[in-house]
Amino acid sequence: MTKGGTIKKKGEGMIIGVPKEIKDHESRVGVTPAGARALVEAGHKVLVQTGAGDLSAFPDDEYQNAGAEIVGGAYDVWRLADMVVKVKEPVAKEYGYFRDGLVLFTYLHLAPVKDLTDALLSKGVTGIAYETVRDAQGTLPLLTPMSEVAGRLSVQMGAAYLQKEHGGRGVLLGGVPGVLPGNVVILGGGIVGTNAAKMALGMGARVTMIDLNLNRLREIDDIFSGQVQTLASNSYNISEAAAEADLLVGGVLIPGHSAPKLVTAAMVAGMKKGAVIVDVAIDQGGCIETARPTTHSDPSYVVDGVVHYCVTNMPAAVPNTSTLALTNATFPYVLRLANNGAEAAIRANCGIAEGVNTYRGTLTYEAVAESQSREWKPITEVLG
Fold it and tell me: Does residue 69 surpass a pLDDT of 50?
């Protein structure tokens, strides 16, 4: 076995662990059977916890046929693996599995979660976060697919919660002849916002997008041929747009940082009764002041008559699509980490280096350090 996958001798395989996700209603899986086969063919060993892929429609026998070994319990997957590949950030129950030298490759979203940061640092885990890995163009390739899913789902779920049975205003987003369609307001013109706009327009809604970047608003105007109304982001425009919204989607992202609170509690109080807020930025603390994390088993709550849907793992509602979309993007990085070992891969690839949030007891990501008022060191300095 390699030392946590950090230093790997030439020709020596790595043991990759794929545990079953235990976050509430999290149904995705970190590696598909196709990925397991590719890893095995590359000389690595893949341990998959029994049932890990069931909810994504990947049963154990597909992993076995691909050459993976099915392991009964999470403890053995974590204990034996050099690198654990997950989907969502570990929950408190999993912190006890951490150990010095372990490589963890998953979404981490550490900025608002101090206790997880503490656990990763105290146990010496190399935590590589999907959401901060960058490609050669400087974009976030491992965040993109789930942002696409979450953006599209935000409108789909918002439309459902606008129905009276869910506490909404009883508004059909597309309207009907003689009745105006619903009004959708989207904060942020990135991947989430663009995909939310596609869905909302497809449903026939009126759509307004708000962003700080005027060049991005110009691009949005071109992309949607003027069908999306655009507004420059400031507190006045946000307040006015929120007051008219039937559905408000929060899709603001500052990589690694806590999301800015663009919609205040006072703005929420001024919204229509029965309007719906879907805060897709809730993983990073949310961009709505009244937003708090919810789960698929208890997805919504009401503040000042406004329905809030703030599920932190929205794409888990469609796990087959989400797992395939996610692993299409993550697998090349998994294979590179496995083939080279974590330390060599980090040294050789600046995009993977950007993904390193913790490295053997040191916090290595500035945005997380700022959010939690901690000291940090760049990974390049840590590795010398």
Answer: yes
